[in-house]
Amino acid sequence: MDTQIKNHPSQWKYSSPQTEGFHEVVTPENSPCKATWAFRLNLKKGSAHKLYMDSIELNGCVVKGSVRIFHSNHNNTLMERDSFYLPGKENLEVEAQEDSILFIGGGPYEDKGTFFIRHYDLSLPVGDIHQIHGKHPYRREVFMTLAQQDTASRLICGITQGDEGMWTSWPPHQHSAHLEEVYCYFDIPSPKSAFHFASRKEGEFEYIHPVSTGDFVIVPEGYHPTCGMPGVKSCYFWIMSAHRSESRRYDLAIEDPNFKKTL
Q: In which domain, by residue range, is 161 found?
């Protein structure tokens, strides 16, 4: 594909495979992203898959089903929205307790990171892990599966869910100089949809992607708010990877001043 076409926001939506197995959905080879990978792992009940990446760190999130994971001498059960962080050069086996789907983010591994699991728990007080952003009609709840405070090389990841029919990531913001991102949508069964707005330009939307469960939208640059259709909560696992280790920060977003004035 021509580079100019590939870099246009109309090409930033990737449909992830529903077939069994481990799938590369977004990579630096098939997208304008330079430091971000997004994978999908589909497992039938009783089947297993071994994860190992030499130079890529992984943050995996169970978006459907439940799995048993085995790492070194430890094993744990992960339910829906539970997650794990796996540094490069380490092995992890994932065994499905029922038909399961995992979305997995990847970033360059620079010998910094410690394996851990995190159970999804919205009863945690609002803070580093459980966060609330915005207000009606753009309030969203965020749960960090891999927070800035966690030890890792390039990745920061989490789950965001908006209110029914409302916005997330508003006002539009960008972090093009420091971080790129992938939004991996789930819990939006087709034909229901949310809408992912993508633009490299201030004050306008270049393209709008309807998105349902299994759709991944990359954010190599630019602004990227979302909105659910009536009755739909925009819900996604987001993968953010820093261009440099020192940019692995959650506070580098720049808001679009044109839309900020409307609040």
A: 3-260
* Residue type for position 43: L
Distance from C-alpha of 37 to C-alpha of 29, rounded to nearest angstrom: 10
Number of domains present in the structure of the chain: 1
Over residues 98-138, the pLDDT tens digits come to 999 999 999 999 999 999 999 999 999 999 999 999 999 99
Residue 239, beta-bridge partner list? 157, 182
- Other CB atoms within 10 Å distance of the CB of residue 48: 13
SS (H, E, C) 163-200: CCCCEECCCCEECCCCEEEEEEECCCCCCCCEEEEEEC
pLDDT band at 5 (very low <50, low <70, confident <90, very high): confident
Q: What is the CATH number of the domain that holds 15?
A: 2.60.120.10
